[in-house]
Amino acid sequence: MTTQPSKISNDALQLYQEVLLKHHKTPTGFEVEINNTHSADGVNAACGDEIVVYAQVEAGTITALGFSGDSCAICRASASIMCSYLTNVEVDQVEAIIEHTISIINSTHTDELICAEVLQPLLAVGKFPVRRQCAILPWRTFVKAVLES
């Protein structure tokens, strides 16, 4: 996983928004059928997003990850990124990854952040404080499904 400082220029912000839109239109893990061992529902009462995250965990590794539900573009794109990023990751590494990802989404100091390339589009969400909870919902729902069950 490549990491680098993440200073956002206007051009990068536009590119990240395009990547988020692409994830929304063709999301990884959306409504895929897996033999899930864990699942949880998540709701963002502020905007009405509803999501179900399901995971297949074998021998301590996330072998498949998916989601379904009715949510906004930011939530769906974030869930898609999550499915791409967390598949084949060991469960004992996930909590730190999710905490870091949520800090990326919530940060207003993107020039100080280092994050994996796949997570960089989420930096754009930090520019829109009202949308942060939309991007965080899939990650918190994953925690509920896998780490709290």
UniProtKB/TrEMBL annotation:
Coiled coil: none
CDD domains: IscU_like
Matching SUPFAM superfamilies: SufE/NifU
Domain NIF system FeS cluster assembly NifU N-terminal as annotated: residue spans: 16-102
Alphabetical list of Pfam families matching this protein: NifU_N
InterPro entries on file: NIF_FeS_clus_asmbl_NifU_N
Protein name, as recorded: Iron-sulfur cluster assembly scaffold protein
Species: Thalassotalea profundi
The organism's taxonomic lineage, starting at the top: Bacteria, Pseudomonadati, Pseudomonadota, Gammaproteobacteria, Alteromonadales
